[in-house]
Amino acid sequence: MMIKVSPSILSADFGNLERDIHGLAAAGADYVHVDIMDGQFVPNLSMGFPVVNALRRMTDMTLDVHLMIDRPIRYVERFCQAGANILTIHVEADTEENTLEALRKIRACGVKPAICVKPKTPAEAVLPFLDLCDLVLVMTVEPGFGGQSFMEDMMPKVAKIREYINERRPGCELEVDGGVNTVTAKTCIAAGANVLVAGSAYFKAEDPAAFVQALKN
Ligand code: DX5
Ligand code: ZN
Protein backbone atom coordinates (compact mmCIF):
# COMPACT_ATOMS: atom_id res chain seq x y z
CA MET A 1 0.00 0.00 0.00
CA MET A 2 1.12 3.55 -0.78
CA ILE A 3 1.83 5.24 2.55
CA LYS A 4 1.35 9.00 2.84
CA VAL A 5 2.72 11.29 5.53
CA SER A 6 0.80 14.33 6.80
CA PRO A 7 2.90 16.39 9.24
CA SER A 8 0.80 18.31 11.77
CA ILE A 9 1.79 21.96 11.83
CA LEU A 10 0.51 22.25 15.39
CA SER A 11 4.16 21.60 16.31
CA ALA A 12 5.59 24.00 13.70
CA ASP A 13 7.29 27.32 14.53
CA PHE A 14 4.47 29.79 13.85
CA GLY A 15 7.00 32.62 13.67
CA ASN A 16 8.53 30.83 10.70
CA LEU A 17 5.48 29.13 9.27
CA GLU A 18 6.32 29.72 5.62
CA ARG A 19 9.81 28.25 6.11
CA ASP A 20 8.35 25.20 7.87
CA ILE A 21 5.68 24.70 5.17
CA HIS A 22 8.27 24.77 2.41
CA GLY A 23 10.28 22.32 4.51
CA LEU A 24 7.40 19.82 4.35
CA ALA A 25 7.49 19.67 0.56
CA ALA A 26 11.28 19.41 0.59
CA ALA A 27 11.07 16.52 3.09
CA GLY A 28 8.75 14.56 0.78
CA ALA A 29 5.61 14.90 2.91
CA ASP A 30 2.33 14.27 1.09
CA TYR A 31 -0.18 16.42 2.98
CA VAL A 32 -0.14 19.31 5.44
CA HIS A 33 -2.22 18.41 8.53
CA VAL A 34 -3.93 21.47 10.01
CA ASP A 35 -5.50 21.11 13.48
CA ILE A 36 -8.40 23.46 14.16
CA MET A 37 -9.53 23.61 17.82
CA ASP A 38 -12.39 25.63 19.29
CA GLY A 39 -11.86 25.41 23.06
CA GLN A 40 -15.22 23.58 23.32
CA PHE A 41 -14.96 20.25 21.53
CA VAL A 42 -11.42 20.02 22.89
CA PRO A 43 -9.88 21.96 25.80
CA ASN A 44 -7.50 23.93 23.60
CA LEU A 45 -7.52 26.65 20.94
CA SER A 46 -5.35 26.70 17.85
CA MET A 47 -5.91 28.43 14.52
CA GLY A 48 -8.79 29.41 12.25
CA PHE A 49 -9.69 30.67 8.78
CA PRO A 50 -6.91 33.27 8.35
CA VAL A 51 -4.17 30.70 8.94
CA VAL A 52 -5.74 28.17 6.54
CA ASN A 53 -5.97 30.92 3.96
CA ALA A 54 -2.34 31.92 4.54
CA LEU A 55 -1.25 28.28 4.16
CA ARG A 56 -3.20 28.11 0.89
CA ARG A 57 -1.18 31.01 -0.46
CA MET A 58 2.10 29.44 0.69
CA THR A 59 1.79 26.01 -0.91
CA ASP A 60 0.09 23.82 -3.51
CA MET A 61 0.32 20.81 -1.19
CA THR A 62 -2.89 19.09 -0.07
CA LEU A 63 -4.25 20.82 3.03
CA ASP A 64 -5.60 18.08 5.31
CA VAL A 65 -7.74 20.10 7.71
CA HIS A 66 -8.87 18.40 10.95
CA LEU A 67 -11.75 20.22 12.63
CA MET A 68 -11.93 19.62 16.37
CA ILE A 69 -14.94 21.89 16.79
CA ASP A 70 -18.53 21.56 17.99
CA ARG A 71 -21.26 21.54 15.33
CA PRO A 72 -18.83 21.93 12.41
CA ILE A 73 -21.74 22.26 9.95
CA ARG A 74 -21.69 25.96 10.88
CA TYR A 75 -18.22 26.46 9.43
CA VAL A 76 -17.41 23.78 6.83
CA GLU A 77 -18.09 25.98 3.81
CA ARG A 78 -15.79 28.69 5.14
CA PHE A 79 -12.98 26.19 5.65
CA CYS A 80 -13.48 24.97 2.09
CA GLN A 81 -13.33 28.55 0.82
CA ALA A 82 -10.20 29.18 2.91
CA GLY A 83 -8.44 26.42 0.95
CA ALA A 84 -8.90 23.01 2.57
CA ASN A 85 -8.51 20.02 0.20
CA ILE A 86 -9.56 17.37 2.72
CA LEU A 87 -11.94 18.48 5.49
CA THR A 88 -12.39 16.19 8.49
CA ILE A 89 -15.18 16.50 11.05
CA HIS A 90 -15.75 14.44 14.21
CA VAL A 91 -18.69 12.02 14.54
CA GLU A 92 -18.99 13.12 18.19
CA ALA A 93 -19.42 16.81 17.31
CA ASP A 94 -23.09 16.86 16.22
CA THR A 95 -26.17 14.74 15.45
CA GLU A 96 -25.97 12.07 12.75
CA GLU A 97 -28.28 14.12 10.55
CA ASN A 98 -26.16 17.26 10.80
CA THR A 99 -22.95 15.30 10.28
CA LEU A 100 -24.35 13.78 7.07
CA GLU A 101 -25.43 17.23 5.91
CA ALA A 102 -22.03 18.72 6.73
CA LEU A 103 -20.27 15.99 4.70
CA ARG A 104 -22.57 16.74 1.74
CA LYS A 105 -21.81 20.45 2.02
CA ILE A 106 -18.07 19.71 1.94
CA ARG A 107 -18.50 17.53 -1.17
CA ALA A 108 -20.59 20.24 -2.85
CA CYS A 109 -17.66 22.64 -2.35
CA GLY A 110 -15.39 20.28 -4.32
CA VAL A 111 -13.47 19.29 -1.19
CA LYS A 112 -12.88 15.73 0.10
CA PRO A 113 -15.14 14.95 3.08
CA ALA A 114 -13.72 12.96 5.98
CA ILE A 115 -14.90 11.67 9.34
CA CYS A 116 -12.92 11.25 12.56
CA VAL A 117 -13.43 9.13 15.69
CA LYS A 118 -12.04 9.84 19.16
CA PRO A 119 -10.45 6.97 21.15
CA LYS A 120 -13.63 6.02 23.05
CA THR A 121 -15.79 5.96 19.91
CA PRO A 122 -16.18 2.49 18.36
CA ALA A 123 -15.38 1.56 14.76
CA GLU A 124 -19.09 1.07 13.95
CA ALA A 125 -19.69 4.79 14.47
CA VAL A 126 -18.19 5.52 11.02
CA LEU A 127 -20.64 3.26 9.17
CA PRO A 128 -23.50 5.74 8.64
CA PHE A 129 -21.03 8.15 7.01
CA LEU A 130 -18.65 5.92 5.08
CA ASP A 131 -20.43 6.24 1.72
CA LEU A 132 -19.93 10.01 1.82
CA CYS A 133 -16.26 9.98 2.86
CA ASP A 134 -12.92 10.00 1.05
CA LEU A 135 -10.95 9.51 4.29
CA VAL A 136 -11.52 8.17 7.79
CA LEU A 137 -9.33 9.46 10.61
CA VAL A 138 -8.76 7.38 13.75
CA MET A 139 -7.40 9.29 16.75
CA THR A 140 -4.57 7.45 18.48
CA VAL A 141 -4.52 10.05 21.32
CA GLU A 142 -7.30 12.11 22.92
CA PRO A 143 -7.61 15.11 20.59
CA GLY A 144 -6.49 18.51 21.85
CA PHE A 145 -2.72 18.48 22.19
CA GLY A 146 0.41 17.43 20.35
CA GLY A 147 3.13 15.36 21.96
CA GLN A 148 0.98 12.72 23.71
CA SER A 149 1.72 8.98 23.80
CA PHE A 150 0.42 6.66 21.12
CA MET A 151 -2.56 4.46 22.11
CA GLU A 152 -1.70 1.05 20.75
CA ASP A 153 -5.11 -0.26 21.86
CA MET A 154 -6.66 1.68 18.96
CA MET A 155 -5.18 -0.80 16.46
CA PRO A 156 -8.12 -3.26 16.47
CA LYS A 157 -10.34 -0.29 15.58
CA VAL A 158 -8.03 0.68 12.71
CA ALA A 159 -8.10 -2.93 11.44
CA LYS A 160 -11.90 -3.07 11.66
CA ILE A 161 -12.32 0.20 9.77
CA ARG A 162 -9.83 -1.06 7.16
CA GLU A 163 -12.16 -4.04 6.63
CA TYR A 164 -15.21 -1.77 6.31
CA ILE A 165 -13.35 0.37 3.77
CA ASN A 166 -12.19 -2.60 1.70
CA GLU A 167 -15.71 -4.03 1.63
CA ARG A 168 -17.78 -0.91 1.24
CA ARG A 169 -15.67 2.02 0.10
CA PRO A 170 -12.41 0.93 -1.56
CA GLY A 171 -10.27 3.95 -2.31
CA CYS A 172 -11.24 5.71 0.90
CA GLU A 173 -8.08 6.59 2.83
CA LEU A 174 -7.46 5.56 6.43
CA GLU A 175 -5.47 8.01 8.53
CA VAL A 176 -4.14 7.83 12.09
CA ASP A 177 -3.36 10.85 14.26
CA GLY A 178 -1.48 11.10 17.55
CA GLY A 179 1.81 9.79 18.87
CA VAL A 180 3.01 8.54 15.49
CA ASN A 181 6.78 8.08 15.23
CA THR A 182 9.06 5.73 13.30
CA VAL A 183 8.20 2.84 15.65
CA THR A 184 4.43 3.31 16.07
CA ALA A 185 4.05 4.02 12.33
CA LYS A 186 4.84 0.37 11.60
CA THR A 187 2.08 -0.76 13.97
CA CYS A 188 -0.40 1.58 12.26
CA ILE A 189 0.53 0.40 8.78
CA ALA A 190 0.25 -3.24 9.87
CA ALA A 191 -3.28 -2.49 11.16
CA GLY A 192 -4.25 -0.99 7.78
CA ALA A 193 -3.62 2.76 7.96
CA ASN A 194 -2.29 4.42 4.80
CA VAL A 195 -1.98 8.06 5.93
CA LEU A 196 0.13 8.91 8.98
CA VAL A 197 -0.11 12.23 10.82
CA ALA A 198 3.02 13.16 12.76
CA GLY A 199 3.40 16.42 14.65
CA SER A 200 6.02 16.50 17.38
CA ALA A 201 8.03 13.58 15.96
CA TYR A 202 8.29 15.27 12.56
CA PHE A 203 9.26 18.68 13.89
CA LYS A 204 11.78 17.21 16.34
CA ALA A 205 13.46 15.10 13.66
CA GLU A 206 17.01 16.16 12.84
CA ASP A 207 16.55 15.07 9.24
CA PRO A 208 12.89 15.52 8.24
CA ALA A 209 13.37 13.86 4.82
CA ALA A 210 14.87 10.78 6.46
CA PHE A 211 12.03 10.81 9.01
CA VAL A 212 9.36 10.89 6.28
CA GLN A 213 11.14 8.11 4.43
CA ALA A 214 11.38 6.02 7.61
CA LEU A 215 7.63 6.37 8.18
CA LYS A 216 6.95 5.10 4.68
CA ASN A 217 9.21 2.04 4.94
C1 DX5 B 1 -4.16 16.26 18.37
C2 DX5 B 1 -4.00 16.62 16.92
C3 DX5 B 1 -2.83 16.02 16.28
C4 DX5 B 1 -1.50 16.41 16.88
C5 DX5 B 1 -0.56 15.26 16.68
O1 DX5 B 1 -5.36 16.78 18.84
O2 DX5 B 1 -5.16 16.21 16.19
O3 DX5 B 1 -2.84 16.20 14.88
O4 DX5 B 1 -0.96 17.57 16.32
O5 DX5 B 1 0.61 15.54 17.34
P1 DX5 B 1 1.65 14.39 17.73
O6 DX5 B 1 2.10 13.74 16.47
O7 DX5 B 1 2.71 15.16 18.43
O8 DX5 B 1 0.91 13.41 18.64
ZN1 ZN C 1 -5.06 16.24 13.94
Give an overview in words:
Helix content is 35%, strand content 20%. With 217 residues, it is an alpha/beta fold. The chain has an eight-stranded parallel beta sheet. It is globular. The structure holds D-xylitol-5-phosphate and zinc ion.
Concise overview:
The protein is built from eight helices and eight strands; from the N terminus they run βαβαβαβαββαβαβαα. The chain has 217 residues and is an alpha/beta fold.
For the record, give the distance between the C-alpha atoms at the N and C termini, rounded to a whole number: 11 Å
Seen as an oligomer or otherwise, the chain set is single chain
Structural class computed from helices and strand pairing: alpha/beta
Distinct bound molecules: D-xylitol-5-phosphate, zinc ion
> Helix amount, in percent?
25-40%
Enumerate the strands of the largest sheet in spatial order, edge to edge or round the barrel. Answer: 1-8-7-6-5-4-3-2
The whole-angstrom Rg is: 16 Å
Number of helices: 8
Major sheet characteristics: 8 strands, parallel
Strand content bin: 15-25%
Order of helices and strands: EHEHEHEHEEHEHEHH
| Form type | globular
Q: Estimate the mean pLDDT confidence.
A: 98
Structure summary, number of beta strands: 8
Query: Would you identify the regions where 5 or more consecutive residues have pLDDT less than 50?
Result: none
List the helices and strands and how they pair.
Blueprint: E1 4-7, H1 17-26, E2 31-37, H2 49-58, E3 62-68, H3 76-82, E4 86-90, H4 96-108, E5 112-117, E6 135-139, H5 155-168, E7 173-177, H6 184-191, E8 195-198, H7 200-204, H8 208-216
Parallel strand pairs: 1-8, 2-3, 3-4, 4-5, 5-6, 6-7, 7-8
